[in-house]
Structures are given as C-alpha cells and as structure tokens.
Write a structure and sequence with these properties.
Length: about 325
C-alpha cells in the first residue's frame, strides 16, 4: 500500500489514495464527476477495514443540530440497541445528532468514523466544541477522523455538503433523525439515494418542524425505523449475528459488562437500554418492545439489578447505579 505519513505535534495523520489497497471500497464505487472524485483521504486514528470483504455494515447517522429531547433519546436508544453487532456508526462530528451518535457508539463499543467539515489538525478541527470528542474518537481502537481536506483547512460553507457525499458514500445506509425540510441533513439522504444506498428515517411528531424531513422521506419510500431491530434488518443482519463482546473498549458501558460478568443476557440487555435516568414504565415498555419479556420477568430482573447495585429506583424513576 502506498501511503504518506504526516507527523505533527502529538498526532499522526495517514494519507490514503484510491489506488491504495485499504482505500474504502464503497467510496471507489461512487458515480462521481471528475470535480467530485476523491483524490486522497487524510486519516487520524485506527480506521476500521473498509474493504470489499469486511464483515462490518456502515450506518451513517445524521440529524438536526438543534434537536429535541425526542431526537436525542431516539438516537441514543437506537444505537444502544446495536451493541454487539458488526456495525460502524458514521457521522459528521457536528453539534447535535451527529455528536450524540458518535458518543452513543463509543459508549457501547461500536466503531465510529467522523467526517468533519475541516482538516484534522487540532487547531482547525470543527466544531471547536467537539474537539474533545474528536480526540476520543481518534484515540479509540477501530475509530477514526477522516477528511479529504488538507490538515490545516478551515471549515467553510461549501465544505459541509462536500463531506456529506463521503459520509453517504462510505455507508451501506443513511439514517435520518430529525431534520427540517430545508436542512442540510437531507443533502446526505439525497446523496445516499443517488448512490443506490438505503435511506432510513425515524418518524416524528406531526407538530414538530423537525419531523418534516424524516416524515417526507418515509412518504417517498425511506424505510421507517421504530426500533434497533428495524436497523439491524435494514442492514441485512439478524439477531443471530450479535456478539457478546464489543470491538472497542466501549468507554462508559455500565462497568464494561461482558460474558465474564455474573449478569444474565436479559439483565445486560436491560442495562444497555438504561442510558440515562428513565421513568420505570417507559423502561418497561422499551424492554417489552425490544426483548419481548413479560412484566413479571422484567420486575424480577430489575429487582436483582437493584440488589446488586447496578440500578437505583426512586420516585418511579430508574437510573444506572455505580457498580
């Protein structure tokens, strides 16, 4: 493989070109005009193998910067439910749904790739508010920051639509969570359609302007996403493809539960859903929807988790414990 190594202060950036063996396979397939073609990619971090035979499915997750609590909860819950699958989360490091998607992926041990609208040098990495998140991604196994812009390139208006084609192009499917009809988020979904990739959308309340984009996409044939299982099926996977262990270290994952813990698989599934304090009835509904347990079974598991210190129940709310 031909590759150039650029060493800067406390960071290393690789350069991949289309003729390099590990240049992302799906990006090679894009029907781009000469002016749109990818000349080179700059990579900081441990880029997951993106070749033709990779077992991973790449899911681009995009949405509004000014999201609602519904959008945030939907994004977190959907990605939490993908834990253990060979799925890589792709997004743009932007404030809002992008950052929530990256954070959720890191939390549950899924690989994630961020395409900022800038170069990768710390001085220009955009947005500045998410530079710490960018550093976490770059320093997590099998995760990376990727850009086609020179390292010192400062983000500008035209660089975001341009990077969107890479996000859509490297992914097998694009998931839209909250977007107005005039949102730049819909550029990514349009590109995904142009590239013959699947477009997925989370339906939203009819009274919210942020639901207009996803609801419009659904009306035009996008796959409706109401659960993590819908995503898994859309990516051509099945529950049997789920692994108990995660690829990366998983960061904050309730103490890093794996097969060596004394917890049952059902209890691990419940903890995976409990990403923030939740109303008990809402949590029970999610468990029933996603894991098809009876209320008696759920209450028994919740009691065991509380006795073991994994959860705390107070005033009808359940939150993660400190075990």
């Amino acid at each position: 493989m031909e590759e150039e190594i650029i060493t800067q202060t406390a960071q290393t950036v690789r350069t991949l070109r289309p003729n390099d063996a590990d240049f992302p396979y799906l990006l090679r397939q894009l029907p781009l005009s000469p002016s749109e073609q990818v000349k080179e990619l700059f990579i900081r971090g441990d880029l997951l193998s993106c070749d033709k035979d990779t077992p991973y499915r790449f899911l681009c997750v995009v949405g509004s910067r000014k999201h609602t609590s519904y959008g945030e909860r939907a994004c977190q819950s959907l990605i939490e439910g993908l834990r253990g699958y060979n799925i890589c989360i792709v997004s743009g490091l932007a404030i809002g749904i992008d950052a929530i998607a990256h954070e959720a992926a890191l939390r549950v041990g899924l690989p994630t790739i961020a395409f900022p609208g800038s170069g990768l040098d710390r001085k220009v990495l955009y947005p500045a508010r998410n530079q710490h998140l960018g550093e976490r991604i770059a320093n997590t196994p099998h995760c990376a920051l990727v850009s086609e812009f020179n390292n010192d390139f400062t983000a500008t208006d035209w660089s975001f639509p341009r990077r969107n084609r890479l996000m859509a192009g490297i992914s097998h499917a694009t998931l839209v969570i909250e977007a107005k009809l005039d949102s730049g988020t819909l550029i990514t979904s349009r590109l995904a359609g142009d590239y013959n990739r699947d477009v997925l959308a989370v339906p939203g309340p009819i009274f919210s302007s942020l639901s207009e984009g996803p609801n419009m996409l659904i009306s035009k044939g996008a796959a409706i996403i109401r659960s993590s299982e819908d995503i898994i099926a859309a990516l051509g996977l099945s529950p049997e493809d789920r692994s108990v262990t995660s690829l990366s270290d998983g960061g904050d994952t309730r103490g890093g539960h794996d097969a060596s813990d004394s917890l049952s698989q059902q209890e691990i599934n419940i903890l995976d859903l409990l990403i923030e304090p939740m109303d008990k009835e809402y949590l029970i509904d999610k468990i029933i929807q996603q894991h098809h347990l009876s209320i008696a079974e759920i209450n028994a598991h919740l009691s065991m988790l509380e006795l073991s210190g994994y959860i705390i129940e107070s005033g009808g709310m359940i939150e993660p414990g400190h075990t």
